[in-house]
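Tokens in:
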């Protein structure tokens, strides 16, 4: 869980109080939904979080596993 939170912390750098304005998260939003990144609003962001929270948790677990694997290979 810590690695998942660390990923979110890094992904929202500079935009932690307004994550929907993060260029990285906008890009991820665009690739996931097809909606243009420049048009993402707070409502769009929270609607996606509300409807796709299971997929978000799955993604965060996956990033944690990949990070742990990469760390073990670098040692």
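Residues out:
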């Amino acid at each position: 869980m810590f690695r998942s939170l660390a990923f979110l912390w890094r992904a929202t750098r500079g935009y932690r109080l307004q994550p929907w304005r993060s260029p990285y998260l906008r890009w991820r939003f665009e690739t996931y939904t097809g909606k243009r990144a420049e048009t993402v609003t707070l409502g769009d962001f929270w609607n996606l979080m509300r409807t796709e929270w299971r997929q978000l948790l799955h993604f965060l677990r996956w990033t944690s596993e990949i990070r742990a694997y990469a760390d073990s290979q670098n040692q």
